[in-house]
């Protein structure tokens, strides 16, 4: 039952953002919105919240200056509000980044929905709770969305946007557009999925890593090096699907799946693979073909090679591979 | 029962490398060894192998020139041998990159061990077979090791080195040292593990991605973007463990595990997590502390931020986050 009160302003016209919760993630959002030229009002119940928050923003600022600040962006445009109500009273958008506890999120989001002006979109930074579970206590659940960032939110572009069962699809569209205007890279999901997308991928890798450490199969050092010296170099600019398509040579993802498909049955991780049926094979092959667009295999190899070289150079590792 | 014939030369004195199999991976190895100034003899039974190989090396060469060639490195130092025996007869080291079929690897490695000079170390590029299973047919199994690269081997530094039950530990040490001299970044494993380390991590992520596509939960485009716009930007220079330690704020991995530990029980991926007991918690915390070394939390945050900025800039994405 979506509510229909429209947002009080267009995503392009947002001036004041309220950030609720000012820990690592909430504080990172504050830094991001300040750097993009917004007025930011923050609220956090911790006694030392203001000190910690201003320290975090100051520490992030040199990085943000390098990226390039928006016109008029300033750390002085941050206000700490004494109450939650005052923090959100004049906000055009609210980003909630409270600790990851369902009951807390539930009551906090209800309180926020009651304290904001009608129609203001409220996004939760939750790492994995479905909005459907978090919006149950709110009187105006239609404008509650998930806007899940990555740490640090002022540097990592990704934000995943998804609504709950009682979220107005307009609020999802509004939030996606707002994040885009605010300089984020948006994935809008059409359904709820525990952990969304990136966290599911990251969590699968992470749990396999924990298993290996728990079993003495690898050390923390091995795990980190295996990524930064290996696939991590490609994933900074080419995702796992297109990367694997290139492993198939000129035959692309189709050849890769035919060649390495049987290894999906191998115990290469503790996660069992899905059945590689015709539909999945086609979805992967078609998706990679679409991602490649007009680029030939040779174009993609050249782009990947240049990307790896650029990343190696940027992270100070060229020269180390010289004999 | 390790054999005791020592390698005919020290890892530092290798002049001629034989590459057996010249597909995407084998050809990538050829390019790497040529660029590092070795004489390379290749063999591949395919009719068009020489054409394909020379094309691959020529395509890779501009990238290798950018990285910086070793003194005397030249594409002219590549010879295609008409037979496997001639390819390896004078080799100081052999890299086998045949198709991923166990029986084929088994007989090929036996043939190679018989055709090389005594003591020459032979490494397999296998993506996941344990050497114990591959060395069963060889008369001199002591010098057979796994040397598992990432695609493309001429750019991605990582190589994972591990022996089988019948491998001489001296051969593992020799191979690790040789790869190091040849400009690779080496992880030497003390036990066999299906998929080694990086592939297990990568495969867990990949299988979760396949499940999501199979269930219509995410598209190929979403999956690739969720990595390149998200965690992939950090993983190019900071591994998943240290990255997650920073998500714990000043409290590091200990705080992170206490805070997000319960989410290991959440269905954020189809892979079940191990029990987060005291031993695992300590191993993760200690490993991250060791990785951090003398660097404070603030140092690590600054390094991560600079790394992300450098990677964004290197991959042409700065400016896109400006409002």
From TrEMBL, chains A, B:
<comment type="similarity">
    <text>Belongs to the 3-hydroxyacyl-CoA dehydrogenase family. L-carnitine dehydrogenase subfamily.</text>
</comment>
<dbReference type="GO" id="GO:0006631">
    <property type="term" value="P:fatty acid metabolic process"/>
</dbReference>
<keyword id="KW-0963">Cytoplasm</keyword>
<dbReference type="InterPro" id="IPR006108">
    <property type="entry name" value="3HC_DH_C"/>
</dbReference>
<dbReference type="InterPro" id="IPR013328">
    <property type="entry name" value="6PGD_dom2"/>
</dbReference>
<comment type="function">
    <text>Catalyzes the NAD(+)-dependent oxidation of L-carnitine to 3-dehydrocarnitine.</text>
</comment>
<dbReference type="Pfam" id="PF02737">
    <property type="entry name" value="3HCDH_N"/>
</dbReference>
<keyword id="KW-0560">Oxidoreductase</keyword>
<comment type="pathway">
    <text>Amine and polyamine metabolism; carnitine metabolism.</text>
</comment>
<comment type="subunit">
    <text>Homodimer.</text>
</comment>
<feature type="domain" description="3-hydroxyacyl-CoA dehydrogenase C-terminal">
    <location>
        <begin position="195"/>
        <end position="265"/>
    </location>
</feature>
<feature type="domain" description="3-hydroxyacyl-CoA dehydrogenase NAD binding">
    <location>
        <begin position="17"/>
        <end position="189"/>
    </location>
</feature>
<keyword id="KW-0520">NAD</keyword>
<dbReference type="InterPro" id="IPR008927">
    <property type="entry name" value="6-PGluconate_DH-like_C_sf"/>
</dbReference>
<comment type="pathway">
    <text>Lipid metabolism; butanoate metabolism.</text>
</comment>
<protein>
    <recommendedName>
        <fullName>L-carnitine dehydrogenase</fullName>
        <ecNumber>1.1.1.108</ecNumber>
    </recommendedName>
</protein>
<dbReference type="Pfam" id="PF00725">
    <property type="entry name" value="3HCDH"/>
</dbReference>
<dbReference type="GO" id="GO:0009437">
    <property type="term" value="P:carnitine metabolic process"/>
</dbReference>
<dbReference type="GO" id="GO:0070403">
    <property type="term" value="F:NAD+ binding"/>
</dbReference>
<dbReference type="GO" id="GO:0047728">
    <property type="term" value="F:carnitine 3-dehydrogenase activity"/>
</dbReference>
<dbReference type="InterPro" id="IPR036291">
    <property type="entry name" value="NAD(P)-bd_dom_sf"/>
</dbReference>
<feature type="binding site">
    <location>
        <begin position="21"/>
        <end position="26"/>
    </location>
    <ligand>
        <name>NAD(+)</name>
    </ligand>
</feature>
<dbReference type="InterPro" id="IPR026578">
    <property type="entry name" value="L-carnitine_dehydrogenase"/>
</dbReference>
<dbReference type="InterPro" id="IPR006176">
    <property type="entry name" value="3-OHacyl-CoA_DH_NAD-bd"/>
</dbReference>
<dbReference type="GO" id="GO:0005737">
    <property type="term" value="C:cytoplasm"/>
</dbReference>
